[in-house]
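Before a colleague's protein record goes any further, I have to sign it off. What it holds is a sequence and that sequence's fold in token form. My question to you is simply how this chain folds and whether the tokens agree. Thanks in advance; the entry in question is below:
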Amino acid sequence: MVRRYGLVVTLALGLFATTAQAEVSELKITKQPGLLFAPMLLMEHHKLVEKHAKDAGVPDLKAAWLTLMSGGANNDALLSGNLHIVTSGVTNMLLLWGKTNGDIKAIIGISGLPFKLLTRNPNIKTIKDFKDSDRIAVPAVKSSVQALTLQMAAAKAYGEKDFEKLDPLTVSMTPPDATVALLKGGAQITAAFSVPPFQYQQLEDKSVHTVLNSFDVMGGSHTFTAIWTSAKFRDANPQLYKAFVAALKEATEIVAKNPRAAAALWIEDSQSKLPLDTADKIVSGPQVHWTMVPENTMKYAEFMASVGRLKAKPDSWKDYFFPEVHGEKGS
């Protein structure tokens, strides 16, 4: 009996050790350089993931932050197993959710900021004024949240069957490069669908004006960016997953309570020449909404399903978000 009891204890301890060791020791997360990723910057700077991981019983965690500009690159790295958690536009998450039959889901949304389609051509007042010779810079054609929002705007303007009417005019260009090209002028691009702070830098040029605001297309505040991972990672790393969510919650609260400090940290980290007052206005602007609650994401999902970008239309936003956020009043 003693031997059997000892064997049971040994097996139980072995199982416990295996479970504990299943949590990864290095958590690989992506970020992007825009101000809308301020919570991620705070998490890195203040080591919030490590802090909450320690509280959760994983004391030696190392959080490795990598910068990837493309949503497609984020998705490829996640699928290959080279990354654990990725951050990009919500439409890239939806594309991967659809392709993996729901294995990939969003952890949380991280910002509700408007992005604007800007041009320096005084003759372009609405998207109907674009001509075949025009070129519109987006972070990634057809897949970025800007590209999908432009398609939604085109569907409203021309009818759903013509939702791709403006696609031939779009070119892939990073927001920093698009800013340089737009401000320089010339024939390279006519307009840029960008992100903060770059769109505000563009608007400092008096010849640049707004053609379209994403909030107008979406009918109000909407989740711009999201954070996602695989069900496999979540199941194998339950403590780290909870620690990451807790860290993001703390970072989001910090940005909401003290946006100026978050703006100052972003300037320092990116070595930006943007004045602090300007960065502060961007982070705390009237349309800026720092929240983890998913907002208007179903409008993207419904549109993508209606035009064949998703195989199946989700019944609810909860279909593509993990359960930890289901208690929120998302949409």
Remarks:
- The radius of gyration is 22 Å.
- The chain has a mean pLDDT of 88.
- The beta strands are 26-31, 62-67, 86-89, 104-111, 116-119, 136-138, 170-172, 191-193, 209-213, 225-230.
- Residues 2-112+222-325 form a domain with the D-Maltodextrin-Binding Protein; domain 2 fold (CATH 3.40.190.10).
